[in-house]
From TrEMBL, chain A:
<keyword id="KW-0067">ATP-binding</keyword>
<feature type="domain" description="ABC transporter">
    <location>
        <begin position="13"/>
        <end position="248"/>
    </location>
</feature>
<dbReference type="InterPro" id="IPR017871">
    <property type="entry name" value="ABC_transporter-like_CS"/>
</dbReference>
<dbReference type="InterPro" id="IPR027417">
    <property type="entry name" value="P-loop_NTPase"/>
</dbReference>
<keyword id="KW-0547">Nucleotide-binding</keyword>
<dbReference type="InterPro" id="IPR003439">
    <property type="entry name" value="ABC_transporter-like_ATP-bd"/>
</dbReference>
<dbReference type="InterPro" id="IPR017911">
    <property type="entry name" value="MacB-like_ATP-bd"/>
</dbReference>
<dbReference type="InterPro" id="IPR003593">
    <property type="entry name" value="AAA+_ATPase"/>
</dbReference>
<protein>
    <submittedName>
        <fullName>ABC transport system ATP-binding protein</fullName>
    </submittedName>
</protein>
From TrEMBL, chain B:
<feature type="transmembrane region" description="Helical">
    <location>
        <begin position="703"/>
        <end position="732"/>
    </location>
</feature>
<keyword id="KW-0472">Membrane</keyword>
<feature type="transmembrane region" description="Helical">
    <location>
        <begin position="409"/>
        <end position="428"/>
    </location>
</feature>
<feature type="transmembrane region" description="Helical">
    <location>
        <begin position="487"/>
        <end position="507"/>
    </location>
</feature>
<feature type="transmembrane region" description="Helical">
    <location>
        <begin position="440"/>
        <end position="466"/>
    </location>
</feature>
<feature type="transmembrane region" description="Helical">
    <location>
        <begin position="263"/>
        <end position="289"/>
    </location>
</feature>
<dbReference type="InterPro" id="IPR025857">
    <property type="entry name" value="MacB_PCD"/>
</dbReference>
<keyword id="KW-1133">Transmembrane helix</keyword>
<feature type="transmembrane region" description="Helical">
    <location>
        <begin position="753"/>
        <end position="778"/>
    </location>
</feature>
Length: 249, 835
């Protein structure tokens, strides 16, 4: 079965039998133990779990930043596990968006060029209307000519979100996107992300350890010791905190 | 802080590899230069000392002791004096060494030889018998090994010997002695004769350079006795030295030239060291920038500014020590290898010695260490000023604004203007020293101003080249994100390229200008003179036709040279004229003005004195025409020459004048000359003319160019290591940024291309700027040196300059390979995790 013949499903991202381990023999750590997971389209999903639960590894593998030992990962009808580095790079360019915890922007170029970077790397021109929609939604119009170091932390993250949304990717991954922000700015960024799933139909998968951040998601997946151990729909800060506490037991 | 510094070096050892390499090469250059000097001296001492190897004392006529009196009679040391010295009871043996030339004839050939008296009782004149015995009577000689082999002479053979007295007698070779390694003797065939026979052969020149003496018991006693003897005979201008002192004295006399060579080499070593210094400054700047948080953390934890600074300087010190020792070891190994090579390739130079003195070893190490520490002190100051808060600063600054100090700019402008003015004045006035001083001032001035134009040029050209490629645009931005670093990296390369291209342009212009002035002086490309051959017009014509059919020869013409009778004037007696055939001559000659008509004489006038309108030679009055181009003789037509009364018929000779194809290379000309000599059956020096001289000058200039370029290549090499260094450190610094780009869709290939473009930008622009500067300096320098000689002809060796640019760019590309691979190897996740 080649990746091209896989049928498009209702899921933006799905993975089956994903395993990954680090180290050798005595130092061996199983970061992912045969994880089966699927993320529905146009949903905002948060992955939570204690440190070392494998949530970051799962996200890195799903995003094609890291390679799993076994299993399959389907995004946009293609199995990431069968792609070489260049094909993976093209996937990241076209199908996947990123918002990292920090150091999201290339420091030498201004906000607008940063937002357009994945498109310029692909040598494509941008859809002007969509660009305007995104930057207005994120309130970045006044900041486009600023260099990253001239922007506040929240503004930098909003630029990163804009960059992720602009290519209309199959999925946007967030790796603790509000980890470096104060709670008010963090809330602002998270609202924007939720809005983009509701109004633009964007699929978002976010890793976080902050129950407040997770409460913005539609669904919360709970991980422990490399496996998915639970799921919460329409989470609140309280239910998330409770679920996390039960994991620790 | 010592343990912090050492831990840093241990942790970041890889970051220091390039800088250690650069410092080691710079130091090795210096050490090798000094080792060349000491080894040359030792080798000379070894070979010169051969003459006095077994002697205690040497007495010689010393000009420095002679009084400043024109009537003073210099002492002549002859056999008589040697015999008197032998009679002194404190002396065991004494013999003289002389330079008396003679000729030795074997059955086949004649050879120039040096005649030397030897006596079996007196150490055989310092010679060492390999075979046979010492000469016992005036009919016996000994000969040195090497020349005996060359002459095919062996013990028992009889040869003819002509002394300085011009008398020839048959002598028998009774022994063979070892050939001396003394460079003042080794070129000559050395003939040892019995003393009385030598004195007779030497005639008036029977004098000694040195008297070599062995003491009977104690050397000081012999020395005293000699002093007394000299005083008694009033030989106040005779010195007595121990053999060792004499060798040192001789070496000093011979090594004046080596010292100059050492000075020249030291200048190149200095250039290499300045370039190395720039690489060191850069490395530490980058390393400190990378460690900002770490250093700031140390400050937060209570490290004093002074402690931060010493920690950086300790690192520099350790690197300086390691690299300098490595460099000196490298130089010693290189020199030892070279001398070993000489021993293997040229067995007769077995006396070549590797000599190292403490100074030659210590100075490079000290210079290397000092250079490293001093170069690192600027970055160390910057590290010291770091605020503790910097540890907490969340963002990596996009670009560093390092404004050049105002003082440096002002100083740079002043130096550039003053130096440029001097340079221009020197060029106009045709004075090399003034122009050289101007260059010496203006170049550092321009380098001080480099921060004003280097980053701007890199960015401008980078944007131009990048076009629409994102990687290209990012490369251009990255190349100037730290202007100070870019400037230092580029400057290091710029220095080398400027000097190389200056030498190339200067050399090319010198070649062209000399060509010009030679062409002006030589109206004919080649002249084949058939001296010592009976004049035969038909045969000469045949030869001219035969030569004319050779490849590379366009036209030929014959001439007849002879002397004519004159009365009165400066040329009373014989007057040399060259008779030419105007029709064919006009085809070979480069300047139609010197084609004579019948009844006309073309006189060559270089002095500029007035010439009379008419001149009477050989009983006929001829019209005078003056030209500055010279065929060494005045020109008339052949018909005119034949109508004149000729002088001595033995002076007459014929020859062929040749015009060669215009685009022959130097080697083709050399080959053509050999071919012509072959066809005409003459020695190749009989074929002369402008193109030969020109080829010779060109070859000399080419060899000089090659040597100087090779020396400067060391500086360029170090600068290129600097480019690789800066780039790999920048890659480390930008790990997260590069990983981000990878995560966002930059392919591995694109990442490598981006780094390659950055390297090529810095290297290429530095080379380009260097070329521009080099061309300007080269043209002005050549004008200053050569404008006095004649009309200048400016030529720029585009091909060579393009080659320099290409080499710089390719080398920069190569320099980007390792950093590029390391950057591409890192997975985006790993990179983003790096703090």
């Amino acid at each position: 079965m080649t990746s091209e013949t896989l049928p498009l499903t209702e899921y933006a991202v799905s993975a089956r039998g994903l395993t990954k381990s680090y180290g050798h023999d005595s130092t061996r750590v199983e970061a992912l133990r045969t994880v089966d997971v699927a993320f529905a389209r146009s949903r905002f999903t948060a992955i939570m779990g204690p440190s070392g639960s494998g949530k970051s590894t799962l996200m890195h593998c799903l995003a094609g930043l890291d390679t799993a030992d076994a299993g399959e990962i389907i995004i946009g009808g293609r199995d990431l596990m069968t792609l070489n580095d260049d094909e993976l790079t093209m996937m990241r360019r076209e199908q996947i968006g990123f918002v990292f915890q920090s150091f999201n922007l290339v420091p030498t170029i201004n906000a607008k060029d940063n937002i357009l970077l994945p498109l310029s790397l692909a040598g494509k021109s941008h859809d002007r209307e969509w660009f305007n929609t995104v930057i207005d939604a994120l309130g970045l119009r006044d900041r486009l000519s600023h260099k990253p170091h001239e922007l506040s932390g929240g503004q930098q993250q909003r630029v990163a979100v804009a960059r992720a949304l602009l290519t209309r990717p199959e999925v946007v991954f967030g790796d603790e996107p509000t980890g470096n922000l104060d709670s008010r700015t963090g809330a602002e960024v998270l609202s924007l992300m939720r809005t983009s799933t509701r109004e633009m139909g964007q699929t978002i998968i976010m890793v976080t350890h902050d129950p407040a951040a997770a409460s913005y998601a539609d669904t919360v997946l709970l991980m422990k010791d490399g496996s998915i151990v639970g799921q919460l729909e329409n989470p609140t800060v309280a239910t998330v905190t409770e679920a996390l506490a039960s994991l620790a037991e | 802080m010592l343990h912090v510094a050492l831990a840093n070096i241990k942790t970041y050892a890889r970051r220091y590899i390039a800088v250690i390499l650069a410092v080691a090469i710079g130091t090795a250059f210096l050490a090798a230069t000094l080792a060349v000097n000491t080894s040359t001296r030792a080798t000379l001492k070894n070979s010169l000392g051969d003459t006095y190897k077994n002697a205690d004392l040497v007495a010689f006529q010393d000009w420095e002791l002679a009084p400043d009196d024109p009537d003073f009679k210099y002492t002549e040391l002859g056999l008589k004096q040697v015999q008197q010295i032998r009679e002194l009871p404190q002396i065991s043996t004494a013999y003289g060494t002389a330079f008396v030339s003679g000729e030795l004839r074997t059955a086949d050939d004649g050879y120039g030889v040096m005649l030397q008296p030897v006596s079996a009782e007196q150490n055989l004149g310092g010679m060492e018998l390999l075979e046979g015995r010492a000469p016992l009577n005036s009919n016996e000689i000994i000969l040195d090994d090497e020349h005996a082999q060359k002459m095919l002479v062996s013990v028992g053979d009889t040869v003819g010997l002509t002394g300085a007295d011009s008398a020839t007698r048959d002598v028998k070779v009774v022994g063979i002695q070892r050939t001396s390694t003394d460079p003042m003797l080794s070129g000559y065939a050395l003939v040892g004769m019995q003393e009385s026979a030598w004195e007779k052969s030497a005639g008036e020149s029977a004098q000694f350079q040195n008297i070599v003496i062995d003491a009977r018991d104690s050397v000081p006693a012999a020395q005293q006795a000699l002093a007394a003897y000299l005083a008694e005979h009033r030989m106040i201008d005779v010195s007595v030295m121990t053999a060792d002192e004499k060798v040192i004295n001789d070496v000093a006399m011979l090594t004046d030239g080596t010292d100059q060579l050492t000075i020249v080499l030291l200048v190149f070593a200095l250039v290499a060291l300045v370039v190395t210094g720039l690489v060191v400054v850069n490395t530490f700047n980058v390393v400190i920038a990378q460690r900002t948080r770490e250093l700031a953390l140390l400050r937060t934890l209570g490290a004093k500014r002074q402690q931060i600074r010493s920690s950086v300087l300790i690192e520099a010190l350790v690197i300086g020590v390691v690299a300098s020792l490595l460099g000196v070891a490298l130089a010693v190994a290189l020199m030892a290898g070279l001398i070993q090579l000489v021993h293997v390739m040229v067995p007769s130079m077995s006396y070549a010695t590797l000599a190292l003195n403490t100074t030659g070893l210590v100075v490079p190490v000290v210079v290397g260490i000092l250079m490293t520490v001093i170069a690192a002190s600027l970055p160390a100051r910057r590290a010291m000023k770091l605020a503790p808060l910097a540890a907490l600063r969340p963002f990596d600054a996009a670009s560093v604004k390092n404004r050049a100090g105002k003082l440096r700019i002002v100083f740079g402008i002043l130096l550039t203007l003053a130096g440029g003015g001097l340079l221009a004045w020197g060029a106009i006035a045709g004075s090399l020293p003034i122009a050289f001083g101007g260059g010496l001032l203006s170049f550092p001035g321009i380098l001080m101003l480099a921060s004003l134009f280097v980053p701007a040029s890199v960015f401008g050209i980078g944007k131009l080249v990048a076009g629409r490629s994102v990687a290209g645009k990012l490369a251009a931005l990255n190349a100037v994100r730290n202007p100070g670093r870019t400037t230092a990296t580029a400057t290091a390369l710029l220095i080398g390229v400027t000097l190389v291209s200056m030498i190339m342009v200067g050399g090319q212009t010198a070649k062209a200008s000399l060509n010009n002035s030679i062409a002006g002086e030589y109206p004919v490309d080649l002249t084949v003179s058939l001296y010592e051959r009976a004049v035969n017009e038909a045969k000469t014509q045949d030869l001219a036709r035969e030569l004319g059919s050779l490849d590379g020869i366009e036209e030929t013409s014959t001439f007849l040279a002879g002397s004519v009778e004159t009365k009165g004037g400066d040329n009373e007696g014989g007057f040399s004229l060259m008779g030419v055939d105007p029709q064919t001559f006009s085809k070979v000659v480069l300047d139609q003005n010197i084609v004579p008509e019948d009844g006309q004489i073309i006189r060559f006038n270089t002095g500029g004195e007035e010439q009379p309108k008419k001149l009477t030679v050989g009983g006929r009055e001829l019209d005078v025409k003056v030209s500055s181009a010279s065929l060494f003789q005045d020109l008339v037509t052949k018909d005119t020459l034949e109508s004149l009364k000729t002088g001595d018929a033995a002076d007459e000779y014929a020859g062929v004048l040749i015009k060669v194809a215009p685009d022959l290379s130097n080697s083709e000309i050399t080959a053509l000359v050999e071919q012509i000599a072959d066809v005409a059956n003459v020695e190749s020096y009989m074929v002369s003319g402008g193109v030969v001289e020109n080829a010779m000058f060109s070859q000399v200039i080419d060899v000089l160019l090659a040597i100087v370029s090779a020396l400067l290549a060391v500086a360029v090499l170090i600068a290129l290591i600097g480019v690789a260094n800066t780039l790999s450190l920048s890659v480390l610094e930008r790990t997260r940024e590069n990983s981000l780009l990878r995560a966002l869709g930059l392919k591995k290939k694109q990442l490598r291309a981006m780094l390659a473009q950055e390297a090529v930008l810095i290297g290429g622009v530095a080379a380009l700027l260097g070329l521009v500067l080099g061309v300007v300096y080269g043209l002005l320098g050549a004008h200053a040196t050569l404008s006095a000689i004649g009309e200048m002809s400016y030529e720029i060796p585009w091909l060579q300059l393009a080659l320099v640019l290409v080499v710089s760019i390719v080398a920069a590309l190569l320099a980007s390979v390792t950093p590029g691979r390391r950057a591409a190897k890192l997975s985006p996740v790993q990179g983003l995790a790096t703090e």
